[in-house]
Design goal:
eight-stranded mixed β-sheet; globular
Length: 245
């Protein structure tokens, strides 16, 4: 078996449960946003009586903080929900787009890191008056260079733009207090890391399979062999919005 086949097989065999990216150490890097989301979340969780973590993944971010007396989380993918339930006191399997299985005006704080979709109306409903939604989100065009390499040039949707986020929050009756975007360098150092990333972050190349994209993966392998890395750009934005009252 050649090095290309070995790397692809390795990337295809890594388990997908949870939202832990430690496997990529030494194989891929992503520049981190300057604001330190985990620290910001920890400070906010320590200052409230009730909080909800939407689309928690494996509970990685929230579980490292001191939790408020009422702490709940949602997750739509059963394997992730099982992982998160071992770390957090209450994890409910619920669809990403809602509805949320909670009463209205329950939570002081709703958080989400990289939500697949943001159910703005439901967030506004479950927040108490004066409560806050605080989220780090994936921005428009994230990893579009990788998408284009694998699929050919693709249009960039505005569905994840900061303008759309602001408009959606305000339409739900929330006041946007902070909206901060940033562009970040991403580098992959072997094709196995690309394979695992595309299996894990499904929306980058919809319908990705190793067999269906083998030719492009070989081209990616040759590109990395020649240049030492494949570089693209991700975007993130931080949004904080408050429910009046």
């Amino acid at each position: 078996m050649g090095i290309f086949e070995e790397l692809v097989a390795e990337g295809a065999a890594v388990p997908l449960e949870g939202w832990d990216f430690s496997w990529f150490a030494g194989r891929a890097t992503e520049e981190r946003p300057p604001w330190g989301y985990a620290s910001l979340i920890a400070a906010r969780l320590a200052a409230v009586e009730s909080a909800l973590d939407l689309q928690t993944g494996g509970g990685e971010v929230t579980a490292s903080a001191v939790l408020p007396p009422l702490m709940a989380a949602t997750e739509s993918w059963p394997p992730n929900a099982l992982v998160a339930s071992r770390k957090l006191p209450l994890v409910v399997q619920a669809p990403d787009a809602g509805p949320l299985p909670f009463r209205s005006s329950v939570f002081d704080l709703v958080i989400s890191r990289h939500p697949v979709v943001t159910p703005w109306a439901e967030i506004a409903r479950v927040l108490r008056p004066g409560g806050t939604y605080f989220s780090q989100q994936i921005g428009a065009g994230t990893n579009s260079g990788l998408t284009d390499f694998m699929m050919g040039p693709q249009p960039v949707s505005d569905a994840r733009s900061t303008e759309r986020a602001r408009a959606s929050a305000e339409a739900a009756g929330l006041k946007v207090l902070r909206l901060e975007p940033v562009s970040l360098r991403v580098a992959f150092f072997d094709v196995g890391a690309v394979v695992h990333f595309l299996r894990k972050v499904l929306w980058t190349v919809p319908g990705f399979t190793v067999e269906g994209h083998r030719d492009r993966l070989l081209d990616m392998h040759e590109h990395i062999q020649e240049h030492g890395e494949f570089v693209c750009t991700s975007t993130r934005f931080l949004i904080e919005a408050r429910k009046p009252g």
